[in-house]
Write a structure and sequence with these properties.
heterodimer, A: alpha/beta, Aminopeptidase, Elongation Factor Tu (Ef-tu), domain 3, six-stranded mixed β-sheet, globular, B: alpha+beta, 2 domains, eight-stranded mixed β-sheet, 9 helices
Chain lengths: 366, 373
C-alpha cells in the first residue's frame, strides 16, 4: 500500500516538473490577443509583456514601445523579434450627428467590418460602436449589372448610440483614438481557435513563453536578444528603430506564415496545413532565406523532435530591415489560415512547436 | 394582534408588488438577453420556442401548433384578440459537407435584401446541431494572396457559392461526428453590444426583443386578466410565404389565423428605422403600421391606449406585410405594432431600450379591461 502511494507521489512530482517545462504560449496568447494595440498605440501590449518577463532581466523600452532584453555575450548575436501591434483604425472626425469617421489602418477587408461591432479605445476606457452598413444596404438593387461603389474604411460611419458630437465627446471619444474590431474567439476544439489579432500576438506569446523558459546555461557562448517591436503593420517602423542600435548576425522574425490551408485559395503556394508544426518561411515578399540556414533549422528541429514545415508565401517580416546591417533573416512562423481577418486561425501544436523551436535555436545555433 | 399581522402582511405584499413593478424594466432586459442567445431561423425555431415556454409563468397552458408555433390563452368576455410575433429570423442552414469537412450553406427562405449573404464573409458562426452548438468560421481569402481579380470574385462578388464554413475538421466523417446534419441552422454568435444611450446591438436582436416583450405581456396577463379573450402566439415559419398567385401570406401567420380565428389581430413585429424622411426613428416609441385604408377602430384603440399609458408612438403607412395578410378581411381587424430597429437584417441590429419598454407598456395598456375598445 505504502509502495503504491510512493509511486503515485513520484508520478505526480514527475508530471509537475514536466508540466513546468512545457509551453504556456497558448494561455499567454489567449490573454495577450485581447489587449488592444493598434499600430502606434502599443503601450498596453508592451506593459503586458514587460510585466510578465522574468525578474532580474535588464529589460529596455523606447518611446515607440519597443521592448527588448539581451542575455549572454560573444558571437553569434541572435535576435528574435515579434511585433506587438495589430490592425485597426483611428478616429479622424466626429460628425455633428455623433458618428465617427476613421483613418484606415490597412490590412483588413473593409467589407468584413460592415455592420459589425467595434471598440473605440478612449483615454477613459473602451466605448462600443457599430460600423453602419452602407447606405441603401437593404434596397433591392434595380440595376444588378451596375457595380456597387466599393465599401472602404474611408466610408465607415460608426454609430455609438448617441445623436450629437457633444454626446460622443461626453463618452470620452476624441480624434486620434484607435478602434479595433470587437474580438470573438471561435474555439473549434481545445487547442484550435480563430480570432482577430493572432497576427502577431501568437509570435509575441511564443517569444514570451520562450523567455520564461530560458535557462542560463543555454546562452553561455552567444548573445541572444528577444524583442517585441511596434508598428510592423504600418511599415516595419519599430524594427527599423531597433536596427539602428541592434546589429545581430542572425535575426529570427516571429510572425504569421500566410497559409492557403482554406477552401477558397489556390494551393500553388503557401499550402502548409494548420496543425502540422512550426514553419520556416523560405521566401516572402521581403526576404529570401538562404537554404543553408533552413537546413540548420531543420536539423535542430529534427534533433529535438520538433515538427517544422518549410514554405513560401507573401507578406513582409521585421527581420528584413536588419538585412542591410549584415544580418541573415530567418523568419519563423506558424501556419495561419485567414491572415489579416477577424478569424485568424491557429493550432496550439504549431504554437508550442514554435516556442520550443525558439528555445532550441537559442541553445544550439552556431 | 391579528389585525396588526394582517396589516403587516399587506404591507409586505404591497412592497413586493412595488418591487415587481419597478423590476419590470430590468426583467424585460433580462428576458431579451435570455432570448437573444437562442438561435432561431425558419424551420429551426424549436430552441427558441422551448426557451419561451420555460420563461412563461407557471400554470399557463401552452398550446402548440404543428409547425412549431406556441401560444398561451387568457380567457375574457369578447374576442378573441390575437397578439402574434415571429419565432423565426433570417439565417442560413447547412446544405452540404465537402469531403474536406467544410460546410456549404443555403437559406431556408429568400434573403431580406441583396447584401444579406455577403455579411457571412470572414465571420464566426454557430451551427446548431442535435449535439449542441458547434463553432465555426466562414472562410475568407488571406489578404496577402488576394489578386485584384480574385478580390472581385471572392470579396466584392461574395455569394453562397463561395461560402464555406470551417469547423476545424479535416473530413466529412469528422464533421458528422460533431453532430453536423443537413438543415442545421447557421447563425452569427449572439454577441450583444451595449451602446451608449440605452441602445443594444446584435444579430437578430429585433426579433428576440419583440418575442421578449410578448413574454413580459403574458407575465402581466397571468396576474391581471385582460378584458377580452386574448391569445399570445409566437409563430414559426413566418418568413416562409405560401406559394400561388396573388398576395403571399406568411405560412405561420396563415395557420395561426386558421387555428384561432381572431376577431382582432395585433401583429407585433419590427420596423426598419433610420431610413430618412417619414421613416421611423429609434427612441420615439413603437410604430403603428397600417395601409392608408386600414382598420381605424383598432388603431384608435391603440391611440387611446398610448394616451393612457403616456407612451409616444410613431405612424407608418405601408402595405400589409405577409404576417398581416391572412388577417385582413371584412370580419376581422388587424394592426401591426412594431419595434423600430436600426440596421435591420444586418449582424448588428440596434434597438433602443426605451422603445422596448414603451412597446410593452402600450400592449399591456391596450389589453387592460375596457381599454382596448
Amino acid at each position: 500500500m505504502n509502495k503504491r502511494i510512493t509511486v503515485l507521489v513520484l508520478i505526480s512530482l514527475f508530471s509537475a516538473v514536466a508540466a513546468a517545462a512545457q509551453s504556456k504560449a497558448w494561455d499567454i496568447l489567449r490573454e495577450i490577443v485581447l489587449v488592444p494595440g493598434v499600430s502606434g498605440h502599443e503601450g498596453a501590449v508592451a506593459d503586458f509583456i514587460q510585466k510578465r518577463l522574468p525578474a532580474g532581466l535588464k529589460v529596455e523600452r523606447d518611446g515607440m514601445h519597443n521592448v527588448w532584453f539581451t542575455v549572454g555575450s560573444g558571437k553569434p548575436h541572435i535576435l528574435f523579434v515579434a511585433h506587438s501591434d495589430e490592425l485597426g483604425w483611428t478616429v479622424d472626425k466626429i460628425t455633428a450627428e455623433g458618428r465617427l469617421r476613421v483613418k484606415p489602418g490597412g490590412g483588413i477587408l473593409p467589407q468584413t467590418a460592415e455592420a459589425r461591432p467595434v471598440i473605440v479605445h478612449t483615454a477613459r476606457g473602451p466605448v462600443a460602436g457599430v460600423v453602419a452598413p452602407r447606405p441603401g444596404y437593404d434596397e433591392r438593387r434595380s440595376q444588378a449589372d451596375v457595380p456597387e461603389a466599393p465599401f472602404a474604411a474611408e466610408n465607415f460611419d460608426i454609430f455609438l448610440g448617441v445623436g450629437s458630437e457633444a454626446e460622443a465627446r461626453a463618452l470620452g471619444v476624441a480624434e486620434g483614438d484607435t478602434l479595433t474590431a470587437r474580438k470573438t474567439m471561435t474555439d473549434f476544439a481545445p487547442g484550435l481557435m480563430a480570432t482577430r489579432g493572432v497576427d502577431d500576438r501568437a509570435g509575441c506569446a511564443a517569444l514570451l513563453d520562450a523567455a520564461l523558459r530560458l535557462k542560463a546555461g543555454a546562452f553561455r557562448d552567444r548573445t541572444v536578444t528577444f524583442a517585441w517591436d511596434a508598428q510592423e503593420e504600418t511599415g516595419l517602423l519599430g524594427a527599423s528603430e531597433l536596427a539602428k542600435t541592434l546589429k545581430p548576425d542572425y535575426v529570427f522574425a516571429i510572425d504569421t506564415f500566410v497559409s492557403t490551408d482554406s477552401p477558397l485559395e489556390s494551393k500553388r503556394l503557401a499550402h502548409l496545413p494548420v496543425g502540422k508544426g512550426a514553419v520556416v518561411r523560405a521566401i516572402d515578399s521581403s526576404n529570401v532565406t538562404p537554404k543553408t540556414e533552413i537546413r540548420k533549422v531543420l536539423a535542430i528541429a529534427k534533433k529535438r523532435g520538433i515538427p517544422v514545415q518549410v514554405g513560401n508565401s507573401r507578406g513582409g517580416n521585421d527581420g528584413s530591415v536588419f538585412l542591410p546591417g549584415g544580418a541573415v533573416d530567418i523568419p519563423l512562423s506558424w501556419p495561419g489560415s485567414y491572415a489579416h481577418s477577424l478569424i485568424e486561425k491557429i493550432d496550439r501544436r504549431d504554437l508550442d512547436a514554435l516556442a520550443d523551436l525558439i528555445l532550441a535555436i537559442v541553445a544550439e545555433w552556431k | 394582534m391579528i389585525h396588526r399581522t394582517v396589516k403587516k402582511i399587506a404591507g409586505l405584499l404591497a412592497l413586493a408588488c412595488l418591487a415587481a413593478g419597478t423590476g419590470g424594466a430590468a426583467d424585460l432586459k433580462g428576458l431579451t438577453k435570455e432570448l437573444f442567445i437562442i438561435p432561431s431561423t425558419t424551420g429551426n425555431e424549436d430552441l427558441l420556442a422551448g426557451r419561451i415556454r420555460g420563461l412563461l409563468p407557471r400554470g399557463l397552458v401552452v398550446e402548440e401548433e404543428g409547425l412549431g408555433t406556441i401560444a398561451v390563452r387568457f380567457r375574457g368576455e369578447a374576442g378573441p384578440t390575437l397578439l402574434l410575433a415571429a419565432l423565426d429570423g433570417y439565417g442560413h442552414m447547412v446544405s452540404g459537407i465537402t469531403p474536406e469537412g467544410y460546410l456549404a450553406l443555403d437559406r431556408p427562405v429568400a434573403p431580406p435584401h441583396a447584401r444579406f449573404d455577403a455579411y457571412l464573409l470572414g465571420q464566426p458562426v454557430i451551427i446548431s446541431t442535435s449535439h449542441g452548438p458547434v463553432q465555426g468560421v466562414v472562410s475568407q481569402p488571406a489578404l496577402h494572396l488576394l489578386t485584384q481579380e480574385r478580390r472581385k470574385t471572392l470579396v466584392e462578388g461574395f455569394t453562397l457559392e463561395n461560402a464555406f464554413v470551417d469547423i476545424g475538421v479535416r473530413s466529412e466523417k469528422e464533421a458528422r461526428a460533431k453532430g453536423i446534419e443537413l438543415l442545421d441552422a447557421v447563425t452569427f454568435p449572439a454577441v450583444l453590444t451595449e451602446l451608449a444611450g440605452r441602445k443594444w446591438s446584435g444579430p437578430g436582436l429585433g426579433l428576440k426583443a419583440v418575442a421578449a416583450v410578448l413574454v413580459a405581456v403574458a407575465e402581466a396577463l397571468a396576474t391581471e386578466a385582460p378584458g377580452d379573450e386574448t391569445i399570445i402566439a409566437w409563430a414559426a415559419q413566418t418568413k416562409f410565404t405560401a406559394r400561388g398567385r396573388g398576395a403571399r401570406p406568411a405560412v405561420g401567420a396563415a395557420r395561426a389565423r386558421t387555428r384561432w380565428q381572431p376577431a382582432r389581430t395585433v401583429i407585433v413585429d419590427v420596423a426598419a428605422a433610420g431610413g430618412g424622411d417619414g421613416s421611423p426613428a429609434l427612441g420615439k416609441g413603437p410604430v403603428l403600421i397600417e395601409p392608408k385604408d386600414g382598420s381605424t377602430a383598432l388603431r384608435q384603440a391603440f391611440e387611446r391606449a398610448a394616451a393612457g399609458a403616456d407612451t409616444a408612438y410613431q405612424s407608418l403607412a405601408a402595405a400589409d406585410s405577409p404576417l398581416a395578410i391572412p388577417f385582413t378581411g371584412p370580419l376581422s381587424e388587424v394592426l401591426t405594432v412594431a419595434l423600430p430597429v436600426l440596421f435591420l437584417n444586418t449582424p448588428s441590429e440596434v434597438v433602443d431600450l426605451k422603445d422596448l419598454q414603451a412597446l410593452r407598456d402600450l400592449l399591456e395598456k391596450f389589453l387592460k379591461p375596457g381599454a382596448g375598445r
